[in-house]
Amino acid sequence: MIVRTKRWNIPNFSTWGVPFYYIYFTRFSELLFHKPEEGFILSLLATLLSPLRWIISKLVESYYKRVLPIEKYGMVPDHSIFEAMTSSLISKLPEKFYDMMEEGKIILKKSKTFEFCEDGIIVEDKSMPIKADLVIFATGFKGDQKLRDIFTSPWLRNIVTGSLDSTVPLYRECIHPQIPQMAIIGYSESLSNLHTSEMGARWLAYFLDGGFRLPGIRVMEKDIKEWEKYKKRYNHENYRRSSISLIHIWYNDQLCRDMGCNPKRKKGLLAELFLPYGPTDYEGMGKV
User: What global pTM score does this model have?
Assistant: First the structure.
């Protein structure tokens, strides 16, 4: 396995037996972050709780450094697990991954580049090839390029993904203000991609059925700027990935309000604050 960039790849989404969903995907956890159009009280609360956010991140990091041999194999990422969470650059390892490394069934090679040769591949700083019968590419994809390739018009190709110093300009992570005839489902990243995409699809279906009207272009562009501010605050170099992982409840609340649904889906204040939100919480909503 050729490792180009070290990432936080973990065996399961839990820490000390506590599922990630209870740590990062509740309304209380979202109070630790600044959010688009949050208002003074929530902004002040996020500032006051920022030390708690840092402590949780460091505790989670220390746990995985203890239970995984990532230091032994030189696989500790250069970025924090908090940065990985805010840009969805985190994934679940296959079962017994590091056990198979210990047995020599998986061998890691750290290399930024590689090239093919007759017998296999050559990694950087090595003259001898790694013999290979089969090479599997697991290098992701460029969503920006996919959007641009839809169009032949130079003007549309230029505006659809915005500039390099801005996020992809999608209102509700779905509709481009200047191309309202086109909707994009699934561009925003989260640790529950299907959940996020389904909510966007429900919102879009409700809109197409006449459930609500889009605001004006300037209003949509202003809303996009607010979300861009959040992404740049926490995602740093990865803000163009449009990750909404850690405030996906806040995002879903906006979709609910657009569809005229109550965004509070739990029974009772404690459940609303401390229980994670999932697909079943939104069952039956979004019908015209």
Answer: 0.86
